[in-house]
Amino acid sequence: MKRLIAMTLLAGLIGLAASTNAQEAKKPATVTPNERKDKGSADRHQKFVEIAKKGDVDVLFLGDSITAGWGQNAAWKKNFEPLKAANFGIGGDRTEHVLWRITEGKELEGITPKAAVLMIGTNNSGSNTAEEIAEGVKTIVAELRKQKPNMKVLLLGVFPRSGMKPSDPTKVAPAEQNKKIKQINDIITKLDDGKMVIYMDINSKFLDKDGNLPKEIMPDFLHLSAKGYDIWAEAIEGKVKELIK
Q1: Using one digit for the tens of pLDDT, what is the confidence trace for 137-177?
Q2: Could you say which of 65, 168, 192, 201 is catalytic?
Q3: What span, in angstroms and rounded, lies between the C-alpha atoms of 94 and 136?
Q4: Is 65 a catalytic residue?
């Protein structure tokens, strides 16, 4: 009898382990922290760690190359540098890379920002579903809230790309990509709780009257020009100042 009970318990434990492993296997890559080890990304990450150690950051910008592109341009110096802002953007980053940076990469240690501006997901759009990407964004937001419970998060919808309207019938692939971006944004807008997480979709500000994306704003239909950053700054500056009061 004892042997039968032991075997039954063992079988149960094996079944539980198998179920847990199956659940882990179902997790999309977008929610699994993933370190980028190429020299450029690693060096930039290390720079962020050093910035964080020094502290004195009130506004944290977190994202990919679109965020990294703020650099030290005029819009950044005028609108955000005076707010003690730090730019933690790395070109090519996907949701899983940002997640690694703020968990195992410890980029948030040493700083207590009043607000974070997050925009991420466009680099996932070629290989992940809208639901998977949105889940990655949701996981990042949850981690930010966990680590910095007093920090407000300004979550931006993923920016448009590819230079045409989502409905353009002559550009199937780009149109589908913009359709996916809209689907992502429709999901992540639900993360807005009206208090600690605020969602903003400023995409219409980048489009012309016909709904197209002008090259003067996004020369490669992905990255912003100086004019594009001016538009971005004007669109969110007021809200950022409101969040850090």
Answers
A1: 999 999 999 999 999 999 999 999 985 555 555 454 667 77
A2: 65
A3: 9
A4: yes
